[in-house]
Amino acid sequence: MGLKKNLTSVTFRLIKSLSAGRLQSTDLHTMGQHDFPELKNDRLLKAAKGEAVDKIPVWIMRQAGRYLPEFREFRSKHDFFKICQTPELACEITLQPIDRFPELDASIIFSDILVIPQALGMTVEMRPGVGPVLPEPLVSPEDLARLKFPVDVSKELSYVMEAITLTRHKLRGRVPLIGFSGAPWTLMGYMIEGGGSKTMSKSKKWLYEHPAESKKLLSILTSVVSDYLVGQAKAGAQLLQVFESNAEYLGPELFNEFALPCIRDISEKVKRELGDDKVPMTIFAKGAHYSLEELAQSGYEVVGIDWTVDPSLARLKVGSNVTLQGNLDPCALYADNEQLAQRTHQMVDKFGKQRYIANLGHGIYPDMDPAKVEVFLKAIHSH
Ligand SMILES: Cc1c2[nH]c(c1CCC(=O)O)Cc1[nH]c(c(CCC(=O)O)c1C)Cc1[nH]c(c(CCC(=O)O)c1C)Cc1[nH]c(c(C)c1CCC(=O)O)C2
């Protein structure tokens, strides 16, 4: 019943986009909610569920981005968040790496983790050469009153749901579509620091100085992130990845007290809400090598690891009930082709072919030669 209502409202918004001239009429014809094109490449989903695969599935974090000349060309004409907010622009960027690299086994919707602080009423700008800036960060717990909560994500972030539905159609079943969100602690960090930070000391200060208010903020974020992920799955995302990119600033104690409970709550809420329409979920907590055992027990089918973690040790820690994802050093793509292929093969040897999704250990760097991506992808598939 809830699902039906949600789908109807997504379709309604697509029709509104059409009448506003944002979509072509041909888009609407192919947009029946229950007739997505049949998936032709299900390696990613099979590996996530622990089923055998013919080849190791591979994709790349930040695969749609500045290392692609076609992205830079597109970006020179459009504002970053304008792309995120315009379904057909987000769709076009999502498809760029898929069109270029036939070896990719997954697409990830073009967006950003910082659309959540925006939905909560905060201003976020993407400044060239700087990265994201939140000009009015949360300074003290009184600032929590500034957040617009509760928030109806199906309204505030409807553009992401529309982009997902449109992209599922435009992919024509070539590969599955991944939806994503930032995890609460990582989002809290940006909201307090006002952007990136080398230490996260302002947001860590909150954890020590205002633990109850920190938990309140984290619980607001947990609720919004859960609704957001449910909405993405209903709109057509076939796997959901949660990015806890700032786990590296916490040690096991702070992580277990503040970040992990939210990560657990999110998988539980999302799975409960989706019921029979559940999709596999991935947790990527960058730098949380100290918590791999706990992460493997936190309700996610896939645990992503960064490049500092040895794959064999990670497997020992997580056991055999989860799929591992990762973890080539993004800088290994600067090596010559032969060395890159060799290092990629060594990595796969350590992970093994079962319950494994190949990726880099973090996002690809903007100055990377796209030809190196092809070497990496081919080395995975030829293994
Ligand atoms: C921490 C984080 C952010 N955003 C994201 C994370 C988690 C993953 C990670 O740890 O890298 C996630 C993200 N951001 C982007 C995607 C798109 C999908 C994809 O992976 O292809 C995804 C999955 C686009 C983007 N997000 C951003 C760009 C580049 C901005 C530009 O085009 O000017 C892209 C393509 C900007 C961004 N957005 C963010 C930062 C710190 C930056 C600046 C750093 C940088 O420039 O790479 C916040």
Automatic annotation (TrEMBL):
One of its GO terms (molecular function) is uroporphyrinogen decarboxylase activity. It is an enzyme of class 4 (lyase). It catalyses: uroporphyrinogen III + 4 H(+) = coproporphyrinogen III + 4 CO2. It is found in: Cytoplasm. Pathway: Porphyrin-containing compound metabolism; protoporphyrin-IX biosynthesis; coproporphyrinogen-III from 5-aminolevulinate: step 4/4. One of its GO terms (biological process) is protoporphyrinogen IX biosynthetic process. CDD domains: URO-D (cd00717). Gene3D superfamilies: 3.20.20.210. Its EC number is 4.1.1.37. Residues 57-66, 178-194 form the Uroporphyrinogen decarboxylase (URO-D) domain. PANTHER family: METHYLTETRAHYDROFOLATE:HOMOCYSTEINE METHYLTRANSFERASE RELATED, UROPORPHYRINOGEN DECARBOXYLASE. This is Uroporphyrinogen decarboxylase.
